[in-house]
Each structure stands twice: as C-alpha cells, then as structure tokens.
Protein 1
Amino acid sequence: MSYGDPNNPYGAPQGQPQQPGYGYPAAPPVQQPYGAAAPMTAMPGKVSAARTMLWVIVALQVIGVALFAFSAVAINKAKKDNSLPGLSDYPVGVMWAFVVLALAWLVWAAVMAAKFSTGGNGLRVTALVFGILSAVLGVYPFLVIVGIVHIVLGILIACFVGGADGKAWFNRARY
C-alpha cells in the first residue's frame, strides 16, 4: 500500500501540512505512576454515613450501659432488702457482665468511628465484622426497638463500608 496515491482513502491527508495553533502551547501530560489515581480528599457520602451510624451506636450503648448498671444495682438492692421477691431471682453477676460487654461494644464503635478519616483496609475489615456482628447480635432482643435499630445500623454499616466507595476510601493513597 502506498501513501503516495492520491486516491488512497487510508493515505496521508493531502494539502497543506497542519500548522500549530495560536496562543499558549499545550501543557505536558501529568506524570503519575502506572495505576495511580488522584488522591481522594473528601470522604464519600456512604462512608461518612457509616461513620455517623457508628456514633449513633455509641450513643445507644451509653444508654444501654446506664440501664444495665441501674438494673444491676436495683437487683442487688432487692436481694438485700428482700422487698421484691421476683426481682431478686435475677443474677446480679450476669447484669454486670452485660454492663462490661455493652461498654466494650461502645469503646469498639467509638475507636472505629474516630479512625475513619485515617484508617486503612484493616479498619474497613474491622468495620465490616462489627456491622455483621451488630446485626446478628441485634436479633436476640428483636422485640425491643433497640434490637431492630442495631440490626438496621449493622447491615447499613457493613454495606456502606463493604461497597466500592468504602473500598476506594480505605485503600486510597496517603501522602
């Protein structure tokens, strides 16, 4: 195939050679490493919503810790006074164990929510596990409105953190 043939549709264009345009010359392309994307500066909306939901769980856990502690003290007092025989049958140690577990859940959620802006993929996996466990453990007190709220928040946290926006945020380049 010859590009010198004027009737060749695939040949070089005929006529005047292209003249450079007027004005400023084109800027050179930005050199980035292969596969590197522009750094993310703002947290995506779904990730920010998951962080807010973690803070809501923290607030619910504060209420839960207070209620469990109040119940443990009330049961202990009822056992000593023998004023309410039905209430004195509950074990006080189990109530204090619930206080400790609710407090541990509170601390876990608060630490994760505080680390969302700087955390990496390990925090993403931890938040996924937290969301799934919250949803599963919320099934037990399902009749209580708090259980339903924990189920919904746990599922949403797991979905938002496990999605594409969450993966992009927690795997972003940090400079």
Protein 2
Amino acid sequence: MPRVNVKERLIEHAEDVFRRKGFNAASVQDITEAAGVPKGSFYNHFASKQDLAAEIVARYARATDFSALHGEGPALDRLHRHLTGQIDRIRASGVEFGCLLGTFAGDGTTAGQRVRESVRDALDDWAGAMTRTIAEGQAAGEITADRPPAGLAVFLLDLLEGATLRAKATGDQSSVADEVSIALDALRA
C-alpha cells in the first residue's frame, strides 16, 4: 500500500480551502479536515498557516505556463494566447474563486509578510515574462512604443486580475476575454 505524503495532501487541499474561504477565514482545522489528516500533523510540516500559504503561492507561480510568450508569431498573438491560457486556468479552478494570486493579494494585509512577498514575487515574475514579449513586439513595430514594456506588462496583468476579481463577484467570467482583447488592441502600434 503506498504511503500517504501528508505534506502534499495538506498543500493540495489547502489550496482549495484558501480559494473557497480566503486566507483569513480558513483555519488549520479546515485544512487538515479537507486533507483527511490529524490537526497535529500540520505542524510537523508547516510552522504556520502563513508558511503553507506562501508555499502554495510559490507552487502556483511555478506552474504558470509561459510557453505561449516564447513561441513563434507576432508578440500580440503570443500575449493573447498566454492570457487566454490564464483565463482558462482560472475558469478551471472555478470562476467564483477567482485567481489564487488575486485571492491572496486581497488578504495580503492580514495574511502576513511572507504571503505578501510570495504574491509579489509571483506577480513580478509574471510581469517580467510579459515585458520581454512586449519589448519584442515594440522592436518589431507591432506594439506601441509610447509606454515602457514593463508598464504595459503590469497594465495587462492588472487588467486580467481586476477583470477576474469582478467576475468572481458576479459569477460571470464571459467579459474577461473581451477585456483582454480590447487591451491588446489598444497596444497595437
């Protein structure tokens, strides 16, 4: 019989609990019950709920697929494929739960420094990946050079996160892809 990896079970189930309840409302008891492990085993693997949340954010960030940004074709098409992929990722986890990064960013002031740093690092890495693609598009003359590529990348990321947050509140994600398309059209040179 295979041995159960308690740490992995906690991480896997805690992500769902955090998505449904948010950082503040989720208790260690909620997490251990969802994982089907004794509450005491939590502290064998994590010093705090904050440490677990930071680990979940880091894993979520590492699992982000940036391959569309580095593919072939015009930069705007690559950005569109990438952002559409992220919309699909959010949709797959449940529109009502939004983006995991947005959920933790919203709880940032009370979730603690470690969680805020993990979210900030994830968002910075994401913006950095998009910045390189935007710079390529600007060099090719397809994306406006009126603004620096890093500023445009943050704009696109904020647009996606904001539209996803609104979709979380309304339960309707149908306009998120339209808003991304509008933003990308506005970046055309």
